[in-house]
Amino acid sequence: MSHQHNDSCGHENHGHDHDHDHDTSDLGPQDNLFIHIDRSNVVALNANGHGSDVIKPWHERLDETISIESDADDQIIIRIPFTGSVRIRSLLLKTGPTDQTPSKVALFANEASLDFEDVADKNPTQEFNVAQGREVGEYAVKTAKFSNISSVTLFFPASQGADSTQVYYVGFLGHWSERKNNPILTVYEAQANPADHKKIQGMDGATNSPQL
């Protein structure tokens, strides 16, 4: 056992970044969850762009050519589903500039269909005050509250004085794992369907031999 442990430690030290990032080593921080966000199903409410516009790879995090801006007022909701089960360590945000920076961000774990009426009645899983700045801010969440989740909804309730709120980049740091229920369902269907099929054939042969 000890020999095996030493080998794995040596391997990990030798290629630490590549072991954890695999083919996503260009994303920046270790454990960036960009590739595990279901971008095609990201939704932004009260925004003049697509929610997926702000889900960018790490090397585009400071890009200001693409953003979303609030529409009717200064509130935005962004619903972000993941492709598996995740444990989030930090939220990454680039917003603004200046008074278009949101005053705060409220996070709701596993609330995939929240709208503006819902957020008024629900307590967020966690919320943060948002600082003005041109860099990406990192907001460390309480990991115990963001473990084994499949989606996060972000609510920006107000700007810091402007008529609209603007968001350039949303990202997450954490760990991803494959959902456990999918393989079980696949195995169940593969075992059940042939049995059902044979039973139907047997009944047809015994009671309904003429073709209907």
Helix/strand layout:
Blueprint: H1 2-14, H2 16-21, E1 43-45, E2 68-69, E3 76-95, E4 104-109, H3 116-121, E5 126-129, E6 137-140, E7 149-156, E8 166-177, H4 181-207
Antiparallel strand pairs: 1-3, 2-8, 3-6, 3-7, 3-8, 4-5, 4-7
Your description of this structure?
The chain is an alpha+beta fold and 212 residues long. It has a single domain, classed as Jelly Rolls. 25% of the residues lie in helices and 28% in strands. Strands 1, 2, 3, 4, 5, 6, 7 and 8 form an eight-stranded antiparallel β-sheet that branches. The chain starts with a helix and ends in a 5-residue tail after the last helix. The N terminus is likely disordered.
Summarize the structure.
The protein is of the alpha+beta class and 212 residues long.
How many structural domains in the coordinates? 1
Average predicted local confidence, pLDDT: 81
CATH architecture: Sandwich
- Look at the helices and sheets and give the structural class: alpha+beta
Enumerate how many helices there are, as a single number: 4
Radius of gyration: 23 Å
CATH topology: Jelly Rolls
Q: Provide the succession of SSEs.
A: HHEEEEHEEEEH
Indicate the overall shape.
Answer: globular
Through-space gap between termini: 66 Å
Number of DSSP strand runs: 8
Largest sheet: 8 strands, antiparallel
Give structural attributes.
PITH1-like; alpha+beta; Jelly Rolls; PITH domain-containing protein; 212 residues; 4 helices; 8 strands; disordered N terminus; eight-stranded antiparallel β-sheet; single chain
